[in-house]
Protein 1
Amino acid sequence: MKNRKKAVVLLSGGLDSVTALVIAREADFDCYAISFDYGQRHRCELVAAARLAKQFGAVEHKVVGLDLRSIGGSALTDQNIDVPNHATAGIPVTYVPARNTIFLSIALGWAEVLGAQDLFIGVNAVDYSGYPDCRPEFIAAFERVAGLATRAGSEGSPLTIHTPLIDLSKADIIRRGTALGVDYALTISCYDPDEEGRACGTCDSCRLRAEGFAAAGLDDPTLYK
Amino acid sequence: MKNRKKAVVLLSGGLDSVTALVIAREADFDCYAISFDYGQRHRCELVAAARLAKQFGAVEHKVVGLDLRSIGGSALTDQNIDVPNHATAGIPVTYVPARNTIFLSIALGWAEVLGAQDLFIGVNAVDYSGYPDCRPEFIAAFERVAGLATRAGSEGSPLTIHTPLIDLSKADIIRRGTALGVDYALTISCYDPDEEGRACGTCDSCRLRAEGFAAAGLDDPTLYK
């Protein structure tokens, strides 16, 4: 029996990240899912992440605690900043400063401990919220950091960062995941859900998601408030 | 009165980082010190950091909680791995996977919230422990990530990462800090101190520190067990 390759997969509990997980599994990786309890308003996404990691055969699911509330600066980590219920210009207030850099860094640390040389992240440069840390040039720059930052990288085993969704529309992502058996009813994308995890239907993330199902010609299984 | 520039300074409570802090202050920055409660064995360094931040006039000192024990892989975060009491070849077991990448990422997030365009880190490429994430090429790669990752960077205000100690020997660092008024008795460098913060005298960090005082021709004020 040959040794299967390990991949660390960033799993938020939302639509994109679970699609990245099933794509990694389909590519024959043993998947190690990582989520972050960072003080997010929509903490119920962690319950969804745990369920999804189990359902889609992750070897392990780790939730790392990290207090980004202490830094604030985002509607997602500061209860005093409201989540907008309409589209806004520029980088929106739901942007969490340096979030993907922080998450990738911690995932990089875990990859090094596991001996994994592959990392999957469900960033997307088409139907996204205008966050700077979802762009291909950001990912490429981080990959270079990863190669220099670690023991493995400096000993000639650099990390590859896979972004299988980066050029897909939301509809394409949904079609791809559906074909691979994802039940999107299990995912939570909303930035401002109620305590039962029901979606608001009006935040950026809800709007992009609903438009994605419509464009894919599929029923939207999201449970709304 | 002109607006002073803000700098985020990574402050561990050790010898190097406080020297970086006084250098930043000397360069006329308003300093925002950041430390991490990451599950380190030598957690008493945080008490030292708080004291140093206050003594050297940091405008604010933030301690961010972050559970790196959940990832492990280092003698500093895993109680089952002993801190070596003699020099070892290659990258030592006290290396914490991706630690500087993680710390810089969180500091980057805070810098963005503060509107700071400068960050100081006391890494050193001469008398150090062979950690890959202390090299100038790593810092340069991270600076590029910082420019792409954030709102500020993507709007034309990138972050500068200052590494004032990178080319200094430990003795030079000690001489420089002493000239700027640092009392190194207040700092904790040891990886394996006792509960009162007294140093072991035998770990890598203690050895480099003791050799630095000797080479600088200064009394070593460290309190040993």
Protein 2
Amino acid sequence: MTKPAIKLAAPDLQHLTGDIFVAAGMPEAAAAKVAEVLVWANLRGADSHGVQRIPRYVELIDDGAMNPRPAMRVAFETPAASLIEADRAAGPVAMSFATTEAVRKARGSGIGLALVRQTTHTAAQGYYTAMAARDGMAALSGSCSSPNMIYYGARAAGVSTSPLSIAVPGAARDPLVLDMATGVVAMGKIVHARRTGQRLEPGWAVDAEGKPTTDPARAALPLPLGGPKGSGLSLMIECIASLITANPLLADTFEGKPEGEKHRQNAFLIAIDIARFCDLDLFQDNVRRLVAGLKSLPRQPDVDEVLMPGERGSRMLARRSRDGIPIPAATWSELGRVARRFGLSMPTNADGSWTAQ
Amino acid sequence: MTKPAIKLAAPDLQHLTGDIFVAAGMPEAAAAKVAEVLVWANLRGADSHGVQRIPRYVELIDDGAMNPRPAMRVAFETPAASLIEADRAAGPVAMSFATTEAVRKARGSGIGLALVRQTTHTAAQGYYTAMAARDGMAALSGSCSSPNMIYYGARAAGVSTSPLSIAVPGAARDPLVLDMATGVVAMGKIVHARRTGQRLEPGWAVDAEGKPTTDPARAALPLPLGGPKGSGLSLMIECIASLITANPLLADTFEGKPEGEKHRQNAFLIAIDIARFCDLDLFQDNVRRLVAGLKSLPRQPDVDEVLMPGERGSRMLARRSRDGIPIPAATWSELGRVARRFGLSMPTNADGSWTAQ
């Protein structure tokens, strides 16, 4: 039996999250950014990338892997590119800075690249590409971490579930945002299934011996999307994000180096300033035509509506902004433990029916 | 019963291909480039993207969709980006030019973008990213065409099997080259299966009514890789390659516009000049460490060796460069028809055992 989820208003959850990270040593602005990105994931229904990560983030700060007050800097730049030394910044802090950099470079050069060296968990990749898309950019971003996914043909972790996200301005307010793991599922989804007790689908994961399993408790590693395609994509993201920044994650782990045991991530974000190449209104009108055409296609029997990348998340965001964010009881009690440690009080449930212990 | 394949030396096949395209109206250099790219695909074992395309390319020239003497030009440029108006050039001609442009821009700016408007079938996408990787670049390229793949949730063609390719310099001579369709398989693979009579794997394709089939003769459309991920990737490639260049392919088809019935493609290629950000020797040494680590992982029971993206193709290229390229009898006889039309003689088989009729 899993306990029922409680429901919380987004501003309350964001406030609590920000307070936790300030208490954990971050400056106000950085803590607010982390809170915004985590709660954004919850609002969009990507709970595996939301506030359930807080205890882990705090643990990363405790053990020195995440730096709450990083000396983040542009280590090298050209008119079109920046290499950012993130100094173990929280992923949302480093990635938001990188997005701003890439957009600024794209404004000047048509295309802009931000390479992010030595950050930590980048959270929901789609947040950053959507942020650039709201600035009129087509944006493409990937990030990578220590091995946590099967490389095609192997029985052990060879690559990470590196997310890949691409976003463009939509016809109206919301951008189109593709945000996909290079695994069949993101590791966060398996962790989330463990927490909620739901079984995995066949083909999602293998156990510690590399054998297929649907038991979330036995699942050790996700399988790559489409076999060699998913693990190949992840490998190429490592080559771009980690090897161009001379901060190899996978090789250090394979060779048993001490750095290979630490939590660290690298990332890249590319922005293309659409208005430099074509009229942005024309672009958006062409998106409208494209979306209208796809939505008019004959549908599979069990499908009510053909959805665009990110559309389900946008609708969920509207609903959860209005109705509150459900938090599984297990996650809530973990958040309570973290809050108590910092002497923080937990917010009351949106409808008043639950109060933090 | 399918007739046995004949075998041809690569230079002979390249020579024949070049002669055909010169006879079809291309300048020598353009014809040689098309021949090089098609035969490269055959050498690497990607026969679906090799010389079996020749009859279709000639047909495209006949009906005016492919321009053998295009007025290709850079329509707009910044220090980091070029928008190329390809004027219906053969894909290999436009894409090779675009790659040179993107690499040149990357040398100056760290990153370079080439957008390619109104080209035709781009052939093996990996050729261009590998070309850039040999120049020390990390390269990322995608292209799109009229709808020929299921969009997730729909029963009809909504997107194309848009290839996505990423390449980086390898540890030694050969780059790592990921070249994947956003479909479970490329349309060319289904066409190739029709030609050789082999059955499709379940989950590859649907028939004209949108129902699953393994019969290559009934297969009408491939399914997207990983459902919404593959069709989402393809959609985003259309947004970047076609909508930023203001040359929408999918929407024109949906709306029944005359342009929507014509064969045309758009593409993009992004190059990152690695040496601007880190020492290229260090990068390549880190690739060596990464590859060594992956190859040392424990393997699945039925797997002899863990392979890198493009490695199978590189080995096939070495073997076929030495032993010749096998051409299915059906393809050979179609090539013979094209050659005869232009009054060209077909080359003798590499080992003398077969002669063109």
